[in-house]
Amino acid sequence: MGIENREEGLDVLNRDSFIRNLIRITGTLSRKKKGCCFGIDGVWGSGKTFVLERFEKKMKEDGQFYVYHYNCWKYDYYQEPVIAIIAVILECIEGGMQVDKDMAKADGAIFWKNIKEELAEAAGEWCKNKIGVNLIGIVDKTVNGITEVSNGYDMLHEFREALEKTQKIIRQMAERKTVLVVVDELDRCLPEYAIKILERLHHIFDGLENVVVIVSMDKGQLKNSVRQIFGSEPGRKNIDVYLRKFFAFHMSLDNGTAGMYCKKYGQYFALFGNLYEGAAETPEPEEMEEIEKFFAKILQGLDMRTQERIFRKAEVIHELIADGKVCDYSVMVFEILYLTIVLRAGEKDIDWLAELIESDRSELGGDTFASKEQEIEYMGMLQDYARRGVDLSHMRNGSYIVCNTVLGRAFFWVANIFSGYRNGVCGQYYYPVQAEFEINLVRYFSDLMDIIDLD
Questions:
Q1: 337 close to 364: Cβ distance less than 8 angstroms
Q2: What is the pLDDT of residues 283-340, one digit of tens each?
Q3: Domain with CATH 3.40.50.300 in the chain
């Protein structure tokens, strides 16, 4: 559907500043020919993959880096992560992505031919006797007798030889350009495999000059993985010390400040248009800008994947119930507002949303805010929008007159879920325009919310 076909590559979370800093840090390390492994720390759905894709594109264009993208989850069928890492490097070389401009020259061709042969040989060494599959188990068995010690020593010796061979190949590449290894989707791997990947990255790249390793991670989840692996509850300090073995530092990626909803969800927006008397067929630029700002404010703090799910659910339900009729933009605003507040509150009974004009409510409920102060500020923002949607200086039939704006009508639709509509009055709102179709639509939308869900 529309959300699946949305425009790709949009920086909807305004990540340009973060990407620029990431490029600067990596460039500094490259100029100094330093070896370093650091993390990009962000929760699930914060857009880490998008950042890395933009970053890698820039670094490849720079021409001073050999860039290798290692998707851990994609290659998790390899028991030994080193084999997956070697496979990634070989794929990039075979694809012509990471070769010197002088590849056509004899020395360049010979260099990459030798690298490929040595990588293939190194991969074979790692595969031999399943090196490194369970080193901890091998060490534990040494207490059982001299024979066990001998076997364990042989395995560890083979591990060291394969490791040194792999490091030698990486050094050869790093002598020509900075080797940049980007590790993504660590969060999606099982805890034991995720820790094993970090251990192998440390084994291979630690101490190598002119090699930069960047690991995309959720530090909180990674700490939980460490606890699961060790089978006890090591203190926070001990876990931090353990992780410092792998990372020199980390860059924190928050949920960002979203925007550009009209472009990102263009097919959903296309289902709507301003149809009321005196309104243009499409919103004025100022009104569309107001819609964008409103969405950014009500969705603040929600990760991008959660936001995508909200828009996708709204589109699926709307297409089912609108029968192909183009609806007013205020219906779209209602759908996103209603879905978002129900998600944040953790319940469907949010009749207070229709009574915000005179309400002093400061709690929304749910657990989507980092602090009580943020929740109070959020509720104040909602109340401000509700009040801006009516004429506070005049009343009709004891209710506030709805302003003929997209946001004014959107809050009026919310009221119609929880109160009856008669003679233009619905709860605290008075809206004289005949709107039976929209009223029935939003009520039907509310009914289907609990029935239709998306994975």
A1: no
A2: 567 778 899 999 999 998 888 788 889 999 999 999 999 988 888 899 999 999 999 9
A3: 16-252
CB 10 within 8 A of CB 256: no
State which fold the 16-252 domain adopts. Rossmann fold (3.40.50)
State residue 94's pLDDT score.
Answer: 77
Which residues of the chain are under the pLDDT cut of 50? 1-8, 132-153, 277-281
Q: At what angle do helices 436-449 and 304-321 cross, to 10 degrees?
A: 130
Q: What share of the chain is helix, strand, coil (3-state, %, to 5)?
A: 55, 10, 35
DSSP assigned state of 130: G
Q: Let me know: does 17 contact 331? Beta carbons within 8 Å.
A: no
212, containing H or E segment: strand 211-217
Cα separation, 187 vs 239, whole angstroms: 17
Query: Helices 285-298 and 406-418: crossing angle, nearest 10°?
Result: 50
